Amino acid sequence: MAQILAPSTQWQLRTKLTSMSSSPITPKMWSSILLKQNKKGAVKSSSKYRVLSVKSVGGTINRMEDLLNLDVTPYTDKIIAEYIWIGGSGIDLRSKSRTISKPVEHPSELPKWNYDGSSTGQAPGEDSEVILYPQAIFKDPFRGGNNILVICDAYTPAGVPIPTNKRHRAAEIFSNKKVVDEIPWYGIEQEYTLLQTNVKWPLGWPVGAYPGPQGPYYCGVGADKSFGRDISDAHYKACLYAGINISGTNGEVMPGQWEYQVGPSVGIEAGDHIWCSRYILERITEQAGVVLSLDPKPIEGDWNGAGCHTNYSTKSMREEGGFEVIKKAILNLSLRHKDHISAYGEGNERRLTGKHETASINTFSWGVANRGCSIRVGRDTEKQGKGYLEDRRPASNMDPYVVTSLLAETTILWEPTLEAEALAAQKLSLKV
């Protein structure tokens, strides 16, 4: 009688893994395979070691992922709070974690904390303690559960805001009764560029060379047009989970460049949401092994720069007759053009050249549906006689606390002299 030999357990296991190589193997699937083999009693081993990882075509899955995804909620009331602040450059983000005894709903329930300011360029070594004040809370999309992200601003031990704390001044402006009554809305369009890690060259670009000219990439679809969509989509969902008021996303004109929009947000909330969304994006690109750049002109030449267009309206602008209020606001903005430009991001002069959908940094202009102006007014706003304006001058690396509060200050609180107002009205052809 012929002897029928059954395949070995190892061969069966290898076959299962090979057949599933077209899709990622999760830790749960790996555990299921091992469990089935152990139940059959086919595998006998005296080894005390457990399998830590398995390599497949799709990548490496290891037990650390189980711990990273571990839900501790059933076992403790404690949560992890990730305190986030802005570093010494005014654009770099820093964070560290601490355990909180129970879930919280408001920043006032969280303790103040401190950090070594001499290591972030924000304090001298002989007096390096900087105090973090919790200001806004978001759900943590990385740890899940009741864990939170905490946006903080920074103060000296005496309670004085440090120079890089732009939130403090913004909060003062947004708490002014005139500003509060106008309920300022913001919709911020954050553009960013994804770079390859080692060469700092845009994602999807041939190293040391250039792709085809701009044209097919804006909102493009396809492997030769869209580079980094998974990062954009992951960021989109993570922001929604966190409670950030993200309203959309799209591929940008330069390949490897993306944009997402946050808003409408009211007052100081706009800055909190943009900073938290940037932190989440930094964390996602960190995990993806891609470098995030907010440089306003990452590639010189015939390529679009990266901006942070800021859509803005007040209650008066949104009501009947609002177009006249918008034109008065534009007049004020024209008179403080230099003040705004100086606060709208480092390196912005490389972007605001009058080309690639920008106005010249030295000249203030406005127009209806004109993307080559400093201030753009939409066709719907003109038609309806009310709505909003778009400030196209801010760079991608701007501080949203500065830009949003400066817009409110210039258009609501600041009053030009009659002579300056008349001269500006004549120059801009504004019928006010």
UniProtKB/TrEMBL annotation:
It is an enzyme of class 6 (ligase). Pfam families: Gln-synt_C (PF00120), Gln-synt_N (PF03951). It comes from the Eukaryota. Residues 163-432 form the GS catalytic domain. Signal peptide: none annotated. GO terms for molecular function: ATP binding; glutamine synthetase activity. It catalyses: L-glutamate + NH4(+) + ATP = L-glutamine + ADP + phosphate + H(+). InterPro entries: Gln_synt_N (IPR008147), Gln_synt_N_sf (IPR036651), Gln_synth/guanido_kin_cat_dom (IPR014746), Gln_synth_cat_dom (IPR008146), Gln_synth_gly_rich_site (IPR027303), Gln_synth_N_conserv_site (IPR027302), Glutamine_Synthetase (IPR050292). GO terms for cellular component: chloroplast. Residues 79-159 form the GS beta-grasp domain. Keywords: ATP-binding, Chloroplast, Ligase, Nucleotide-binding, Plastid, Transit peptide. GO terms for biological process: glutamine biosynthetic process. It is found in: Plastid, Chloroplast. Its EC number is 6.3.1.2. The keyword Hydrolase does not apply. Belongs to the glutamine synthetase family. Homooctamer. This is Glutamine synthetase. It comes from Cucumis melo. The gene is LOC103483759.
